């Protein structure tokens, strides 16, 4: 796997191995930046929690971008739902979709929960290399989804025979999957800005994809292979 010509670790005082270790641990386990600082101290490495925060903000979206081309194809049965995330003391909406097997299709953090936001999410999902135009889209009773889906059918963005199903119990698979993200968000006690939330959540989501085994070379629950994958994506020693 190639990681591009630009060295993402240029100018960093810590080694690539240490930086990626921090990124992996923070994005897959429910810990705070201060917890991570103490974990480093236990290994004899002094890194301030504010420095760790800056590194996660830099590398989480970069990991998301680099892993996308290597994801397995998802299927055409979409299960779509949104959950709530607190940002600056207010609730914003995290749109998420998985396929019928639980593989992550895509996600989008939005300040609003309306037809325009739903359409932005659908468009983002359709633009990914690991997705297909859906046969069925299962959603809850949110009236914004039918409006968005109809508009996209008229525009030729969705297959015209795609079926939108508003059946809540069929969406249990995505509602259960929300718990993974909620568990990771909790130690941070909310985000200070929308940008911070977006960057961090992109890291949570992509690490979840990797842990689910959505990359062929990194089977689910194979921590060694997953670590090697991330190192290869950044052209760093594992």
Report what the structure shows.
- This protein folds into two domains: 16-71 and 192-233, no CATH class; 77-179, Nucleotidyltransferase, domain 5 (2-Layer Sandwich), CATH 3.30.420.10.
- Strand 2 and strand 3 (104-110) form a beta hairpin.
- Mean pLDDT is 90; it is low at 1-5.
- 36% of the residues are buried.
- The radius of gyration is 18 Å and the shape is globular.
- Helix 3 crosses helix 7 (194-211) and helix 6 (172-185) crosses helix 7 (194-211).
- The two termini are 14 Å apart.
- It contains eight helices and five strands; from the N terminus they run H-H-H-E-E-E-H-E-H-E-H-H-H.
- It has 238 residues and is of the alpha/beta class.
- It holds the Pfam family DDE_Tnp_IS240.
State the main characteristics.
Nucleotidyltransferase, domain 5, disordered N terminus, 2 domains, Transposase, alpha/beta, five-stranded mixed beta sheet, 238 residues, 8 helices
Short description:
The protein is of the alpha/beta class and 238 residues long.
Topology summary:
Blueprint: H1 16-28, H2 33-42, H3 49-67, E1 77-87, E2 90-99, E3 104-110, H4 115-126, E4 136-139, H5 144-154, E5 163-166, H6 172-185, H7 194-211, H8 223-233
Helix pairs in contact: 1-3, 1-7, 2-3, 3-7, 4-5, 6-7
CATH architecture of the largest domain: 2-Layer Sandwich
Query: Could you say which structural class the secondary elements and strand pairing correspond to?
Result: alpha/beta
Instruction: Find the CATH topology of the largest domain.
Output: Nucleotidyltransferase, domain 5
How far apart lie the N and C ends?
Answer: 14 Å
Uncertain segments are 1-5
**Which descriptor suits the 3D outline?**
globular
Keywords: DNA recombination, DNA-binding, Transposition
Pfam family, one: DDE_Tnp_IS240
Protein name: Transposase
GO molecular function: DNA binding
């Amino acid at each position: 796997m190639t990681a591009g010509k630009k060295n993402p670790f240029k100018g960093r005082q810590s080694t690539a191995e240490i930086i990626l270790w921090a990124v992996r641990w923070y994005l897959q386990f429910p810990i705070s930046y201060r917890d991570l600082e103490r974990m480093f101290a236990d290994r004899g490495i002094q890194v301030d929690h504010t420095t760790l925060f800056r590194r996660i903000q830099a590398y989480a979206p970069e990991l998301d971008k680099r892993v996308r081309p290597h994801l397995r194809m998802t299927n055409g049965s979409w299960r779509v739902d949104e959950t709530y995330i607190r940002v600056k003391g207010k609730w914003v909406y995290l749109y998420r979709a998985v396929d019928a097997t639980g593989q992550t299709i895509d996600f989008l953090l939005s300040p609003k929960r309306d037809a325009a936001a739903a359409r932005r999410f659908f468009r983002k999902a359709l633009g990914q290399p690991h997705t297909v135009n859906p046969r069925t889209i299962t959603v809850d009773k949110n009236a914004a989804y039918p409006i968005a889906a109809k508009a996209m059918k008229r525009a030729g963005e969705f297959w015209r025979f795609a079926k939108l199903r508003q059946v809540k119990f069929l969406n249990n698979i995505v509602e259960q999957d929300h718990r993974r993200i909620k568990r990771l968000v909790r130690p941070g006690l909310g985000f200070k800005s929308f940008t911070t939330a977006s960057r961090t959540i992109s890291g949570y989501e992509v690490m979840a994809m990797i842990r689910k085994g959505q990359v062929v070379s990194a089977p689910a629950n194979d921590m060694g292979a997953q670590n090697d994958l991330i190192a290869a994506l950044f052209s760093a020693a594992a």
